[in-house]
Amino acid sequence: MYNLSALYHPITANPAGGGEYLPGRLLQPYVRCYWGSGAQPRLPQQTETIIPDSCMDIIWEWDERTGESGGIFCGINDTPFEAGQAAQSVTTERFAIRFHFWAVHLFADEPLTEVLNVHVPVEYYFRTFRKELGDKLQYIRTMTERIAAAEAFLLRRLERGNRSSDGMMNAVHRLLTSRGIMTAGALESSSGLSSRQLERLFRQHIGLPPKKVADLIRFQNVWRDLYRSSQTKGVMQDMVFTYGYSHQSHLINNFKKFAGRTPLDALSHARR
């Protein structure tokens, strides 16, 4: 697969939070990053704002004391939410794989038509994950070794030969290069597919229609540009023009729908 990740680098609500590990060269077109935590007490009132980053995650967690383990698959989300942990006296560890939205269907066992804003047991979409990787993670002590085991698992699944639609991937490429600013007609022209065909393929392999994918890509580009900006004065008006909003309040309202905060509030929260 062409490495679309070179065109698009989605970020979280707290990009400086750390804890992300990049994939090896062979998996860069598919995996955004790996992340996880060491054994630590679960403390009350630990919350984190999760914004739509257009990615999907497998999160595997295990109890170091009892050996109990399980995982969830987090589908693509289009609304912000707060993730927290209930107070518990046990220690836990966690390892996660974060996929680019265009690549998950190459690894999954089921179509992704129902993944919008879902958190379900990982077995719903990856039937052999526990056997092939999950149950092994608690016996692997370092993050480097866990990543190596995960990459071996993912490469084996790629060998099964699941395929993408060339037309759909051409459309994804155009959405990324246009930073989400693309008309339906232009998307049809670039993909060689009708709007109905694109709608079906996007819903089957990504879980969203092309228009919603474009909205998420545009939001992520706005957020990344804002976060990287060395100044805030005037930057909002520049983004109105760059990203095709009708006026500044249109940008702010659209951003707030995805981030749960205004752009400047989101920036202040990320930099505190």
Structure description:
By secondary structure, the protein is an alpha+beta fold. 38% of the residues lie in helices and 19% in strands. The chain is built from nine helices and eight strands. The strands form two sheets. It has a six-stranded antiparallel beta sheet with strand order 1-2-7-4-5-8, covered by helices on one side. A two-stranded antiparallel sheet has the order 3-6. A hairpin with a 5-residue loop joins strand 4 and strand 5 (69-74). The chain is globular.
Tags for this model:
alpha+beta; 6-stranded antiparallel β-sheet; two-stranded antiparallel ribbon
Short description:
The chain is 38% helix and 19% strand.
Give a topology summary.
Layout lengths: L19 E2 L9 E11 L4 E5 L4 E9 L5 E6 L6 E5 L5 E10 L18 E3 L7 H9 L5 H16 L7 H12 L6 H8 L3 H11 L4 H19 L6 H8 L5 H12 L3 H9 L1
Helix pairs in contact: 3-4
- Shape category: globular
Beta-strand share of residues: 15-25%
Helix content: 25-40%
How far is the first residue's CA from the last residue's CA? Answer: 39 Å
Largest sheet: 6 strands, antiparallel
Q: Which regions contain 5 or more consecutive residues with pLDDT less than 50?
A: none
Helix-strand makeup class = alpha+beta
Mean pLDDT: 91
Number of strands: 8
Spatial arrangement of strands, main beta sheet? 1-2-7-4-5-8
**SS summary, helix count:** 9
Taking Cα atoms only, what radius of gyration do you get, to the nearest Å? 19 Å
Tell me the series of helices and strands, N- to C-terminal: EEEEEEEEHHHHHHHHH
